[in-house]
Amino acid sequence: MKAAVLPHTGPPDVFQISDVPVPECGPGDVLVEVMASGVSSRDIAERNGTYRRDVVLPLIIGLEIAGVVRATGDQVTSLAIGDHIATKAFSSCGTCRYCRTGRETTCLTRQPVRGGYGQFTALPEDACVKIPKSIPFEAACSLGPAAGVAMNAVRDTARVVMGETVLVSGASSGVGLFSVQLAALAGARVIALSRDPTKVDFLRDLGAHEIVLIGKDGKFAQQVLAHTDGEGVDVVIDNVGSAVFWECFQSLALHGRYGVVGEVVGKRIQVNLARIFFKRAQLLGVGSVSRVQLADVAALCAEGKLHARIDSVLPLEQVAQAHRRVEMGLASGRVILSHNSELDLGKA
Ligand SMILES: [Zn+2]
Questions:
Q1: In contact, 301 and 135? CB cutoff 8 Å
Q2: How many helices (H) and strands (E) does the chain have?
């Protein structure tokens, strides 16, 4: 089979398009023919060497996979040959104390999903969720690691309800654009935060009620307060982290919930703990996506209530262009690698 192999870490052109054996399908695995693979930030970090956890090179990376089940191991019960699937970011064991209490994303022996940059990949059954065949593969591939994480943040961790006001940082990012849509679907008033004035129409089209642009000085809390009669927002869904934390925290209302989804730059911040209890604030860590969250966003997508945003679809041979586009922040929506030449609609 054809694959883009990562031989060692390096710049975007480090990948080698190679002919490699089709992976073996173990008793608990499904063999998936990959139809589309989203280029995620974890792919970029694994390629350039900043993400090293469980990375043993050479490696076929790619965790945002949509494809068709072509074979199943003897122990597989939930999937059959011909099913369309999308992947979670990690597979879980299903038996540890976290898995048995609805907290599979913190599974003690979770394994990263990879292999989307090859024509076939063998994955544990738990990593794959059956999706409706009406969803195009290019839309389905990022449902788990992008839309599903937003579902985890908005519905299951920050528990947004009708009538609340929600501030979404990094609103045009992979998780951010789904956070905006899901908070609006939940009946909340959504304030989308962006640095880029050219994203205003894009964010309004997603369902954001207000768009706040971060000032050159990094400030925006006064604008958010002005949109909320000085009270602040009930919920922050923060996809950016330390770079916006204090302004987001200043934007939070009394008794507000603060969902921490992403940390883009990895800087430390200092917190005066009195600020937390004076505000009665709740700081909530959001991690990854469960099977149920993935299935639920797939259903919303099939019903036409939730929309993936696709920047471009490129053939696997153009993996370097795809990585460059994502790493330079040029994409509006997902950059997709396709293994099906009929779908190669991409712009480089
Ligand atoms: Zn487990």
A1: yes
A2: 10, 17
C-alpha 114: how far from chain center = 15
Ligand 1 centroid vs 231 CA: distance in angstroms? 41
From ligand 1's centre to the CA of 129, what distance in Å?
A: 17
> How far is the centre of ligand 1, averaged over its atoms, from the C-alpha of 207 (Å)?
36
Whole-model pTM?
A: 0.93
Contact 334, 308 (CB under 8 A): yes
Q: How confident is the model at residue 19 (pLDDT cuts 50, 70, 90)?
A: very high
Structure tokens at 63: 């965790």
From the CA of 291, how far away is ligand 1's center (Å)? Answer: 13
Residue that is written with structure tokens 């969250």 in the block:
293
Tokens of 253: 């209302």
Q: Quick check: 348 pLDDT over 70?
A: no
Q: Which residues of 51-62 are buried (b: 16+ CB within 10 A; e: fewer)?
A: beeebeeebbbb
Ligand 1 center to residue 56 CA distance, Å?
22
Contact 82, 152 (CB under 8 A): no
Cis peptide before 27 (omega within 30 of 0): no
C-alpha 307: how far from chain center:
14
112 CA distance to ligand 1 centroid (A)?
13
Q: Over the range 201-216, which residues count as b (16 or more CB within 10 Å of their CB) and which as e?
A: ebbeebbbbbbbebee
For the chain, which domains are there? 2-142+308-343 (3.90.180.10), 147-285 (3.90.180.10)
